[in-house]
Amino acid sequence: MSEKMTRKDFLSSLAFGGATLALFPWLSACSSERQREAAGEKARLGIIGTGSRGQFHLANLLQDPAAQVVALCDDFPPHLDAASALCPSAKRYTDYRKLLEDKEVDGVIICTPLSMHAQMTIDALAAGKHTFCEKAMAHTPEQLSEMFRAWKEGNRVLMVGQQRLYDPKYVQAMELVHNGAIGQVVGIRNYWYRNNDWRREVPSPEFERRINWRLYDEYSRGLMTELACHQLQNGSWAMGGLQPSFVTGTGSIQYWKDGREVFDNVAAIYQYPNGVHMTFESIISNKHFGMGEQILGSEGTIDLVRGVMYSETPRPRSGIRQLLDQIEQGILSNAAFAGTSWATEEASKDAGVRFAENVTVNDGASSVGAAGDGSVELIHAFCLAVISGAQPAGIVEEAYWSTLLALLGDRATHLASRVDIPGEIVW
Question: Which one of 132, 211, 319, 346 has the largest count of C-beta atoms within 10 Å of its C-beta?
């Protein structure tokens, strides 16, 4: 920034509409032009998987003028009944393949356990349906490549539930990063702490794996695909599409010893070719620090979750204020003393500048209604893409990388060693 331009002036010169397509090409899906083109039309949609996330999307779609939910599918009656209560006019299916045969369905939204994502997406694309698949894209790197190939070789829209791509505060934050507001990116820090067993109640023991699929290797990759998949995308954004060269990690089941197979704590470090590293850590037996995501630059830090930018060299306070603060903190006294050879490095006291208003910190636990995290914007963009038939540029690639980094990070935590990351998309 210019020396004559304050940080507040710089921030005020940016707006959500100023995001360039070079940085955020997927935003073209909900441009004012697309909105005008879709006026009065509706995307006829089917939802496959009507559990908590499926009902979340359903609740938002029922308020979206560009959406018409015409079909619901689930082989677990309580979930299907609950979704039908929200949308009684929609046809009911217990076999997703039958839904895919329905000529009245233009597009599908897949909200099933992770292990089902790949095959259902491939089948949906083959059936000629525009497809929205929840994150992470796939259960294995091999499935991920198969999904990407099916999309590349087809002619239907594919979008993935990486909602932060449409979250206004994340778009604003990455505009700041790429406009040099925090200088050179020197680190990326992500963490997600909770204190609960991550379980859901089941009506009887035979439904344990169906309801608590996130806890078992056959269906899930645990914390890395359920939580890290969102946060690892911060690296791709901040580094301008540069991907890490390798990841190291560790993890274990150290607290919730209840028969689960996925780790209840993980830590991973991703190393980029230019020396920058990105971290992800999650513990679900302590929630003190909550969720955090920071982009660290040579001149400042951006807190993505809270929508605040901090400076490494904040504007100095008045001399009187500094003197009073030092006396209050006991830094100055009437007695002379010798200086220490070592002193604790103090954190910055910069109060920061808020660049995103009305920020809602959402931990992904909500099941019904708008989240304020980009989910509403993302699903609306999918509706517009179904109506237009136009694929939002870059969104599949973004989802591919966030999924691959999560899967390879999970592999590293199990091996407790280095895992190399391909430098290009493999399909």
Answer: 132
